[in-house]
Amino acid sequence: MNLESILDELRSQRTRIDLAIAALQGTANNRGPARNGRMKRRQMSAAARARIGTAKKAWWAKQKRKPGAGRKPTLIHSAKRKPMSPAARKKLSALMRARWAASKKAA
C-alpha cells in the first residue's frame, strides 16, 4: 500500500467517526436542558411536608414511650459486666507489663 491510499482510508474513517459523533450529539441534545449533570428534584407541597412531619413526630413519641423500643439488642456485652476484682486487675496488669517488656526486648 502506498501512502496516498492509507491517507484516503484514514480520511474516510474520520468522516464516518465525525458523522457518528454528530448523530450522538443530536440525540443527546433532544433530552432537554442539562442542569449541571443532575436531574431536577421533585418539589413536595407544604401540606405533604406537614403531614409527614406530624406522622413522624407521633412515631417518635410512640417509640419513646416504649422501654427499649428504639434499641436493637447487641449480641456482645448484652448483659451488664461485673466490676473487676482487685486481684484480677493486678494479674492483668502483671501480664501486660510482661508483654510490653517482651515487645520492647524484641524491638
Shape: flat
Rg measurement, Å: 36 Å
| Number of separate helices | 3
Total strand count, please? 0
Main sheet attributes: strand count, strand direction, barrel closure? none
- Oligomeric state: single chain
Unreliable runs: none
> Fraction of residues in helices?
55-70%
Can you summarize this structure?
With 107 residues, the protein is mainly α.
Description:
It is a single chain. With 107 residues, the chain is an all-alpha fold. 64% of the residues lie in helices and 0% in strands. The protein is built from 3 helices and no strands. The longest helix has 27 residues. It is flat.
Index terms:
single chain, 64% helix, 3 helices, 107 residues, mainly alpha
SSE topology:
Blueprint: H1 3-29, H2 46-65, H3 86-106
